[in-house]
Structures are given as C-alpha cells and as structure tokens.
Design brief:
The protein has helices at about 1-20, 210-215, and strands at about 20-25, 30-35, 45-50, 55-60, 70, 80, 90, 100-105, 110-120, 130, 145-155, 155-160, 165-170, 175-185, 195-200, 205. It is mostly beta strands and about 220 residues long. It starts with a helix and ends in an 11-residue tail after the last helix. The protein has a six-stranded mixed beta sheet, covered by helices on one side. A four-stranded antiparallel beta sheet has the order 13-12-15-16, with no helix packed on it. It folds into two domains: about 20-120, Immunoglobulins (Immunoglobulin-like); about 130-215, Sandwich (Immunoglobulin-like), CATH 2.60.40.10.
Length: about 220
C-alpha cells in the first residue's frame, strides 16, 4: 500500500511538472506569476522564460545590479516587472499574444524549477436581448419570441436562466464568432429571466424586461 502511495505521489508530481500551474486572466489586466518565496538569497540567479523554445524574458541576480527584462521578444516590451524581494514576475496590460507556457528557473543555494500555463480571455460583451415576435400581443397569442445575442466572442457559454434555473445554453470554442439563443415566454408572465455570457473567469448578465419587449409590433422591435 505504501509503495502504491509513493508511486501515486511521484505520478502527481510528474503531471505538475508537465502541465504546470494554471493561471487565467482577462485581456488588459495584470497577472503575477509567483515564485512562492518570501525572499531570495544572495547569489541566487532567477531566469524567467517564455514559450516552448524557452526564450529568456527576464533575469535577476540577488545583490547585483543586473536585473533586466524585455529580451528580443517584442511582445513583452514595457510589460514586465520583477519583484526585487521574491523574484515574482508581473505582466501588465496582458493580451492573448502573451498566453502560453512560462518557466521559472532559480539556481543558487536551492534550485527551483516551476512552470505556469497562462490562459488569456478576451473581455466579455454585454448580451443583447431582442424581441423576435412577428405579431403584437393579443388574446390569441400566448407566447413572445425572444433572442439573446453576442458578437465577436470565443471560448464562452451563452445561457438563458429563469430565476436561478438554467433553461438552455450554447457553448463555442472558436474565436470571433456570433452567438444567438432563442427563448419563448408568455406575454403577461411575471417570472424573472436573464441572459448570461460567461467564460472560465468572468460573466456578463442582461435581465429581461418582458413588459418592454413583448408588446412591440413588427418594425418596432426594441433592444435592451
């Protein structure tokens, strides 16, 4: 049993080394990749690398005046900050071009090797709800047709909710695509509906105003 447990721990450590720590951030924000050190020691050499080719983007040696960043990769120019005490790396105003694998290599009294997989998500638009009904409200018409739409999105899920209950959803992994999701409600219904777009780290919500959208005639469809 102990032998199996040791093998399992080694397997988990191996996976961590391969896949690294996952970090998600929204485009335009800043993200800090932490060394998990309270301080670095004299003589420690810290090297941050990016991509499969592991090109250097920042280096630091404790107590020596040779801290530097922004190596030949122009994507990182004026975007990198090194913490003088811990060696942690901050990327400012991040874009989708900065997504990928980052490697931390510390040599000195104690050798440390860490990897980070950084995912960068575009900012989410606010969903737009429109009336898709072809007739005015009447005693013979029971349902109002609605459509929730977003444009130029990727890696998101678009959903309709009734209160806190999920009614329907659609997901996309492509980049820069338009999504629409229909819904039918009764004209005089008093329930609360909302349309939500989300990715793994953010969401945007638009609440439905039935009285506003479900009493319009053809050619006067309103948006919220």
């Amino acid at each position: 049993m102990i032998h199996k447990f040791v093998l399992f721990c080694l397997f988990c450590w191996s996976l961590t080394g391969v896949f690294g720590e996952s970090v998600s951030v929204t485009e335009g924000d800043s993200v800090t990749l932490n060394t998990d050190l309270t301080e670095i020691h004299e003589g420690d050499d810290i090297v941050w690398k990016y991509g499969a080719g592991k090109s250097k983007i920042a280096t630091m040696t404790k107590n020596k005046q040779n801290n530097s960043s922004d190596f030949p990769d122009e994507r990182f120019r004026d975007r990198l900050k090194l913490d003088d005490q811990t060696g942690s790396l901050t990327i400012t105003n991040i874009t989708t071009q900065h997504a990928g694998l980052y490697t931390l290599d510390i040599s000195g009294a104690k050798a440390i090797l860490k990897t980070f997989n950084v995912s960068v998500y575009a900012r989410l638009p606010v969903p737009v709800i429109s009336s898709n009904s072809s007739q005015c409200s009447s005693s013979s018409q029971q349902n109002c047709s609605l459509l929730c739409s977003v444009v130029n999105v990727g890696h998101v899920t678009l959903s309709w909710y009734k209160g806190n209950s999920l009614l329907s959803s659609i997901s996309v992994s492509d980049l820069s695509i338009s999504l629409s999701l229909p819904l039918e409600v009764e004209y005089q219904e008093k329930n609360s509906y909302s349309c939500v777009i989300n990715n793994p780290i953010r969401n945007q919500t638009t609440h439905l105003d039935i009285s506003k959208l479900c009493h319009t005639c053809p050619g006067t469809a309103e948006l919220i």
